[in-house]
Amino acid sequence: MSLAIRFNGVVKAFGPVTVLNGVSFALSPGRVVGLLGENGAGKSTLMKILAGYEQPTGGVVEVDGRPRQFAGSREAEEAGIVLIHQEFNLAEDLTIAQNIFLGHERKTRLGLLDDATMRAGAAQVLAQVGLKRGPDTLVRELIVAEKQLVEIAKALARHARLLIMDEPTATLTPGETEALFALMTQLRSEGVTIIYISHKLDEVERTTDEVVVMRDGRFVAHKPTAQLTRHDMAKLMVGREIADLYPAKDSPPGSEAVPLLEVEGLTVPGWAEDISFEVRPGEILGFAGLVGAGRTELFEGLLGLRPHRVRRLALQGRTTQVRSPRDAADQGITYLSEDRKGKGLHVDLGMRQNLTLMALQRYARPWLAPAAERAALRDAVQRFGIRTGNTEIRAASLSGGNQQKLALAKVLHPEPKVVVLDEPTRGVDVGAKSDIYLLVQQLAREGRGVLVVSSELVELIGLCHRVVVMRAGRIQAVLDASQLTEENLIAHATGTRH
Ligand SMILES: Nc1ncnc2c1ncn2[C@@H]1O[C@H](COP(=O)(O)OP(=O)(O)OP(=O)(O)O)[C@@H](O)[C@H]1O
Ligand SMILES: [Mg+2]
């Protein structure tokens, strides 16, 4: 039942840029293998080759001792190899069931689509992953975490013998993550080999039997997980010692400063009810809560992306209204969306166009100045450590973590007074994470207001001066630095403490 895989000198080049430089290692069948490496190390690319989405430029992949080259993902799936994509690969306008069976439609004996069978099949895998949505729901109606569960359900319906999960838990709640781990254990006991890509080293430590580390398109190490600490893993990934992840906190700004942003009585129907808060110059204000608590929707409302009403909104002491993200950017507030592929980046546009989109007037004098844009991109690549061999590529061709860095560069490019960062470190490697934390601190030191929405409690604790905890659309508590513990945050987020 299990598949044995061996990579033999696998090379991959995109035009002049080589991203895999002859990768060789073997995977033992029936194990859970963590695949680690910095953003852009080549993890997703290697897995896309294994799963038939990309062709190698050189070298071979052996499956059960035989060289195999899959012409497409269908061929790989027939061999039992299924990839769950890091950037979702769902058709938004189709239903969950249609997505699950896309390209594998079940037919009746008359050759018609067998909707009943597909719906039932979908319902079964949805139950397995714990998604409480009907098979007929349109994918566009799902939130990000639900889309992730559909991706996993889709892979289960393909009866994988080798399952590749590319950062599956980046968008999941702790509960959903636990359910996924239980599912992985069950699949392994049924003989499924699992390759698990993640930047969450605590999860890698818990769930994997062995880890493979890549760096700069090369194989670096293959070890039993039990022989490594998280610290060892981080060191192997980045090739150097990592100091503390979080910078020492600056003291919070005094209460005498005029708030940069005041929100009074903001309601986003169905999501958030009568929310009030303020952020001062130099303050890092966190928003904690379970997925579904309404944090993302709250800010989407604030930025004019959702219907909302507000009693009073003031920017730098002036009462105002915000109609759209562009309008907001003009008034000095920008928003990094948690959904970087959907709302954050225009993945079909180039890096340069993405970067300057929110600050176009700066480059139009009156016509666009591509040279200035190019210079701005060079700066951003440098400042945010965006790793790519070629800056003329579409945003879609950047690695996941590097897309995140570009999205961050984009929202900071207009030099906002207030910036809302929704899951700012999703999918970024440990080294880049600590860079982003330093950057957030720097923004605060420059006198800006930084709002951080995060599902990683340690991140909020390590970074914020104050944290607003939301639950079911309402503010449950506002904790200052001295009250910030994981236990406290969880208790308020789940409503076990008032
Ligand atoms: N279609 C493409 N065209 C050009 N370059 C590409 C393309 N696809 C990937 N790359 C480049 O290949 C390199 C490796 O990317 P890959 O997505 O494999 O990294 P990764 O290890 O998965 O990183 P992350 O942790 O950020 O997801 C990156 O520099 C990326 O920009
Ligand atoms: Mg990747």
Characterization of the model:
- It is a single chain.
- The protein has 17 helices and 20 strands.
- The strands form 4 sheets. It has a 6-stranded mixed sheet, sandwiched between helices. A 6-stranded mixed sheet has the order 16-17-18-13-19-20, with helices on both faces.
- The longest helix has 16 residues.
- The protein is α/β, with parallel strands linked by helices and 498 residues long.
- Helix 4 crosses helix 5.
- The protein has 2 domains: 234 residues, P-loop containing nucleotide triphosphate hydrolases (Rossmann fold), CATH 3.40.50.300; 234 residues, Rossmann fold, CATH 3.40.50.
- Adenosine-5'-triphosphate binds next to helix 1 and helix 14.
- It comes from Piscinibacter terrae.
- It is found in: Cell membrane.
- This is Sugar ABC transporter ATP-binding protein.
Summarize, please.
The chain is of the alpha/beta class. The protein folds into two domains: 234 residues, Rossmann fold; 234 residues, Rossmann fold, CATH 3.40.50.
